[in-house]
Amino acid sequence: MSSTGFKVAVLGSGISGAACASTLARNGISVTLFESARGPGGRMSQRREKTEDGKELHFDHGAPFFSVGKSEVLSLVQEWESRGFVAEWKEKFGFFDFQTHKFNNIEQEGLSKRYVGVPGMNSICKALCNENGVESKFGLGIGRIEWLHDDKVWSLTGVDGQNLGQFKGLVASDKNIVSPRITEVTGRLPPLDIKLVPELSEKLLNLPVKPCFVVMLAFAEPLSSIPVKAFSFENSQVLSRAYCDSSKPSRSTASERWILHSTPEYAEEIIAQTGLKKLSDITLNKVAEQLLQEFQSTGLITSQPFFKKAHRWGSAFPAASIAPEEKCLWDRNKRLAICGDFCVSPNVEGAIDSGLAAALKLRDSVSSL
Ligand SMILES: Cc1cc2nc3c(=O)[nH]c(=O)nc-3n(C[C@H](O)[C@H](O)[C@H](O)COP(=O)(O)OP(=O)(O)OC[C@H]3O[C@@H](n4cnc5c(N)ncnc54)[C@H](O)[C@@H]3O)c2cc1C
């Protein structure tokens, strides 16, 4: 069978779903991508904020950058670089020790390559979702996924009950589409009942995750006593990393913007008190203040930020990889691929690798029809 008429739905526009959708389209397969959020990116999103006096600020509040080791992922990233939506972030990275209050191991500029999307981290997913052959629909979360046995197609229903069509192949690129954990967050059942794919269900039953709070800060003046633009903290219960977002290529330098990441332990402690439901502004403000105070206690900052806001990532990082060899879960009979960082490794490279693997499974299943 030719790929004409073979329609695939990709759920999720994070980097695994976006890379999968664009690879399918390049192979002549018609793809519709559904994303519940207003825009693309998932955990590679960019946050747009407005200050009280109307200044617009952008923050990469998910993954701050990524590195690549695998040759097949690297060649794709180099292609994105040549197309202008990826660039290398050539800054020195270091470690700050809370016990000695000193920086250790400041590396030389450009020692290991770190990539960012330009002009924002979400630019990569945005470009992939806009590729020829990918029809992207944002703000359309999938609420129910059914397998129509007689027609051998997947039928999709939106969270508001709307019929979103039937598809011969399906890619689910978020663990929340199958994991019962989503019920704790939204009160709804996961869209895909894992009983439909009994041979995969064992791997999907337990998908442990690590949470993270990020705090976005904007300063009127550069924090000139910090010798690096990105660093990890040692010996802090609260902070794990800090990044100067405005030092990345193609970002506005009208203000100096920093992002702080909490330790997973700190985030777990807050979540133990609040649960996973939407957080109140009071709690988010308290978190922003605590992380800022810890940052200030380093003595590295003397000025106050003119903007601060916290964001919770309830499942920032998967704590296990469920398909490190196969790179995605695959049901050949139902033409269902489940992909994402939780299959390979808890980072952007793992997510790309998994999305590519899912696309190849579907492509091969079309050519064998
Ligand atoms: C704070 C933080 C720091 C990080 N730091 C790094 C780092 O330094 N380096 C690195 O490489 N990685 C880092 N990561 C990890 C990296 O961001 C992820 O590994 C990667 O972006 C995961 O991509 P994904 O496509 O697997 O999942 P996601 O990006 O989570 O995409 C899944 C998408 O599916 C959508 N979706 C879910 N359910 C539905 C539904 N029912 N219907 C429609 N759409 C749905 C979601 O809205 C989401 O957009 C970090 C992540 C966070 C949060």
Automatic annotation (TrEMBL):
TM ranges: none
InterPro entries registered for this protein in UniProt: Amino_oxidase, FAD/NAD-bd_sf
Coiled coil: none
Pfam families referenced in this protein's UniProt entry, alphabetically: Amino_oxidase, NAD_binding_8
A single MF term (Gene Ontology): oxidoreductase activity
Annotated Amine oxidase domain residues: 106-359
PANTHER family the record matches: FAD/NAD(P)-BINDING OXIDOREDUCTASE FAMILY PROTEIN, FAD_NAD(P)-BINDING OXIDOREDUCTASE FAMILY PROTEIN
Record-given protein name: Amine oxidase domain-containing protein
Originating species: Sphenostylis stenocarpa
